Amino acid sequence: MSSNPTRPPETNGASDSEERIKRFLATASHDLQSPLRHIAMYAELLLDDLEETLDGEQLQSLRMIMEKAQTAQRLTKALMSLAGGTPQVTPEEVDLQALAENVWGELTDETAVGEATLESDGLPSIRTDPALFGLVLRHLLTNALTYRSEVPPHVAIAAEREGTDWFIRISDNGTGIDPAYRERIFEPFWKLPKPGTVQGAGLGLTTTREFLTALGGDISLEHSDESGSRFIIRLPIA
Questions:
Q1: Ranges for the Histidine kinase domain (predicted)?
Q2: What does pTM read for this prediction?
Q3: What value does the CA radius of gyration of the chain take, rounded to a whole number of Å?
Q4: What single DSSP character describes residue 98?
Q5: Which residues of the chain have pLDDT under 70?
Q6: Percentage of the chain with pLDDT > 90?
Q7: Does the 92-236 domain belong in CATH 3.30.565.10?
Q8: CA distances from 156 to 92, 119, 141 (A)
Q9: So what's the pLDDT on residue 193?
Q10: Domain edges within the chain
Q11: 188's torsion region: left (phi>0), alpha (psi -120 to 50) or beta?
């Protein structure tokens, strides 16, 4: 592979926007800590009190509530540290195949996009922070499901090792990104125009890049045309 993704030089406007993002992340993460802590605490109490009376499906649902709340707690703490300039990263061995399938399953349930398919067989285990990298995948897969074409969405994830890095490619068969917008997609609060779509905050790709920087990696748009888009993530192996 001949090119490594690099971040363009910052302008004053970009610096101001990044400060706004950091304030937003710090405030939102701080405000979420208390309710998430209570959700996890009450779920744990219910498990202790009702474990003998619940059936298997009910127990699984309650354990899932507790695990998701704990994951969200960990993520918000990481976001607070990221906003403070000292990212809290907890690397561990992560089964990328299982993580991708889990995120995809959650998103297809949430969006109810019919006939969406994921191609990701044989992805390796990587050493990274599962909460932060899971959010990276969530942002990219959400975009693939949001900016879809008239055919059923199809996303392919592939990973290859080169030297001291993993290169992870995420391809979709969506509408592609107009050349006029390709330099702007990582800008804070900028939203790709799509009629009839509920627009988000415009921070998905921006925070994705910030998370990957905290993990020692980066992201870039490798290719996009009317047949779809392909993003490439670089992550250090160790």
A1: 27-238
A2: 0.68
A3: 19
A4: H
A5: 1-18, 21-22, 25, 75, 78-79, 81-87, 189-191, 193-203
A6: 34
A7: yes
A8: 24, 4, 10
A9: 61
A10: 14-83, 92-236
A11: beta
